């Protein structure tokens, strides 16, 4: 069967299973992965592709997700998240905009948009509670801020390798990337406030229990340290060459340090049994998130096995399209197939670079055109899709309306700004 037909069948099947039949996302993703492999005639390699895809996602995100959930739940139960949310509301007259900027600022220094989202989703939750906002609204303004900077600003892992491959000077794309990313983040924020302002007003799962009646709002050191210290360690690893930070600044290790700090601070005011129960609940909840992510990794691996990415790239190169659209659409095709923005920008240059003499575009424009394509189309094979859904407790339809369609709007905005820059400065 042709790879493009397999790709379309896989998308229709996963949408039918998860949205229509309401099959658990993990089961739906694994079943779709198996059927995708069989349709591709790769029965022998299907299981290997599934386990490899799952293993990569688990090894990259299991500790981050578990640690982030533990920190978030402890901050919620001890009142730390409430204090941070209060500070944001007090400092910013528009707390939703402040949340968007928070994600924008930290995604690149943390070298992971997912990590930034996991760390700050407890703050988004508290802002939701204090202002009576829909879950999808607070979660989306945060996620759009992280995506805007992570996809476009050097030295984000998304564009880092492409800058080298295209022979671009770092200084030539740093400021333009920041400007484009900031405008795109604002567009994402406006999209969220316009199209994500309605939805389920119920609380997150962790709020279904009775609020801690003995809660005492902690001091700022207690509240901020489990988040600020891991962030500081990761930044130290990024911007210094001190060997100690090579270990302590690894995201897994940094967040584990944050977990230890959160637990120790909690023990000062609450009983051992209470804190132990919070940790156990956070770990159980993390398991659901991680399984959904692993299912997305499995689907991405089996789709890549079909060769649909190369097929889409070859098709786009022969179509009569405006030059600036070719790098963009090639990146869109690869992103749609395998789900990882970093992987997209590792693959896309190998297809686009040989075409650059024909396209006649400056390498900076090619870079931002490809990076714009990483915003779309993000769907079921994107690990962030499931993290966003599960940590915000959203329905699949809400995620498609906010995360997927919002990403389309942001990607088109980024491409438009890239085109304007090309017309004005080249």
Polypeptide structure, described:
With 426 residues, this protein is mostly helical. The chain contains 20 helices and no strands. Helix 6 packs antiparallel against helix 7. About 2% of the residues have low confidence.
Structure keywords:
20 helices, 426 residues, mainly alpha
Query: Overall 3D geometry?
Result: globular
Low-pLDDT regions: 203-211
**pLDDT averaged residue by residue:** 84
Helix residue percentage: over 70%
Number of strands: 0
Report the biggest beta sheet as strand number plus sense, adding barrel if it closes: none
What proportion of the residues form beta strands (DSSP E)? under 5%
CA radius of gyration is 21 Å
Counted by DSSP, the helix tally is 20
In short:
The chain is mostly helical and 426 residues long. Helices cover 79% and strands 0% of the residues. Mean pLDDT is 84; it is low at 203-211.
Break the fold down into its secondary structure elements and pairings.
Layout: H1 3-20, H2 25-39, H3 43-78, H4 80-91, H5 95-107, H6 113-131, H7 135-152, H8 157-165, H9 170-195, H10 220-239, H11 243-248, H12 251-267, H13 272-306, H14 308-318, H15 325-338, H16 341-352, H17 356-359, H18 363-373, H19 383-392, H20 396-425
Helix pairs in contact: 1-2, 2-3, 2-13, 3-6, 3-12, 3-13, 4-6, 4-10, 5-6, 5-7, 5-9, 6-7, 6-19, 7-9, 7-20, 8-16, 9-20, 10-12, 13-19, 14-15, 15-16, 15-18, 18-20
């Amino acid at each position: 069967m042709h790879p493009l037909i397999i790709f379309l069948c896989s998308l229709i099947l996963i949408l039918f299973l998860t949205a229509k039949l309401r099959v658990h996302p993990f089961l739906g993703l694994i079943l779709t992965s198996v059927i995708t492999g069989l349709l591709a005639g790769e029965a022998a390699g299907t299981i290997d592709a599934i386990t490899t895809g799952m293993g990569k996602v688990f090894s990259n995100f299991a500790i981050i997700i578990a640690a982030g959930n533990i920190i978030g739940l402890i901050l919620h139960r001890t009142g730390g998240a409430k204090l941070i949310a209060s500070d944001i509301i007090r400092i910013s007259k528009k707390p939703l905009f402040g949340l968007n900027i928070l994600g924008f600022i930290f995604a690149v220094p943390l070298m992971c948009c997912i990590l930034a989202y996991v760390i700050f989703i407890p703050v988004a939750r508290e802002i939701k509670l204090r202002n009576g906002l829909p879950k999808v609204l607070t979660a989306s303004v945060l996620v759009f801020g992280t995506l805007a900077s992570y996809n476009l600003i050097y030295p984000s892992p998304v564009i880092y390798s492409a800058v080298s491959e295209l022979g671009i000077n770092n200084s030539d794309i740093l400021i333009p990337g920041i400007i484009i990313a900031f405008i795109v983040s604002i567009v994402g924020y406006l999209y969220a406030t316009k199209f994500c302002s309605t939805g389920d007003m119920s609380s997150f799962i962790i709020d279904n229990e009775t609020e801690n009646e003995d809660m005492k709002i902690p001091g700022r050191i207690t509240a901020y340290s489990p988040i600020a210290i891991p962030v500081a360690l990761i930044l130290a690893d990024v911007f210094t060459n001190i060997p100690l930070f090579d270990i302590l600044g690894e995201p897994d290790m940094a967040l584990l340090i944050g977990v230890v700090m959160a637990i120790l601070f909690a023990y000062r005011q609450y009983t051992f049994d209470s804190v132990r129960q919070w940790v156990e609940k956070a770990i159980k909840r993390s398991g659901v998130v991680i399984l959904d992510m692993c299912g997305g990794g499995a689907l991405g691996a089996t789709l890549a096995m079909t060769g649909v990415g190369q097929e889409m790239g070859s098709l786009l190169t022969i179509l009569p399209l405006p030059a600036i659209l070719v790098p963009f659409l090639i990146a869109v095709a690869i992103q749609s197939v395998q789900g990882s923005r970093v992987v997209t920008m590792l693959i896309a240059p190998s297809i686009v670079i040989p075409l650059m003499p024909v396209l006649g575009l400056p390498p900076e424009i090619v870079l931002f055109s490809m990076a714009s394509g990483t915003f779309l189309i993000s769907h079921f094979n994107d690990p962030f899709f499931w993290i966003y859904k599960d940590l915000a407790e959203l329905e699949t339809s809400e995620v498609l309306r906010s995360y997927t369609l919002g990403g389309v709007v942001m990607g088109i905005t980024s491409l438009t700004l890239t085109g304007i820059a090309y017309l004005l400065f080249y």
